[in-house]
Amino acid sequence: MLYITAAIRIIYNFIRLTILKLFHFHGVFFRPLQLLSVRTSIDIRGRKSRLVLGNRVSARPGVTLAIRDGSLEIGDNVFFNKGCFITCHDHIKIGNDCLFGPNVIFYDHDHIYGPGKIVNKEKYTTAPVELGKNILIGANSVILRGTKIGDNCVIAAGTVVKGEIPADSIVYQKKELIIRPVVSLEPKGIS
Q: Which N-terminal residues, if any, form the signal peptide (predicted)?
């Protein structure tokens, strides 16, 4: 049964990606062996948009790949768990053998805002995001514009990453759990 399901996903993705290539001829490149869920959303807008999928890219339901005049390159043997979201306005490159927990989010852009600006009418500030090979990113992590992560890194769950992370690193945000007793507040009477 597992092989039948995988075969159906491969055939479905080949047809879906071929149709995408027809509409975005110069912008969609893929290897035939893809294991994307039927409920993986691929949303490509803009004439300069580019999507490159390596071999055996796997995605669970609820994954969204949104490309807006940017370039998204995903290497071989990459796995996206449920709810991962990539929005690409500039360039996002993901190396081979990467693994992403549920709800990992990638942004290569920020809104421009400030006095006299209307946020939903302004353009974006962008910077490329680049991930090396063999990276594990835990659930609910956020990868922001201008981030570069070296090979063989682990990003702990719930971490917000911006900047350069050297290869062979473990990254986490130290969070302290504080437990306090509830203090009862007695109402003060009128004297």
A: none
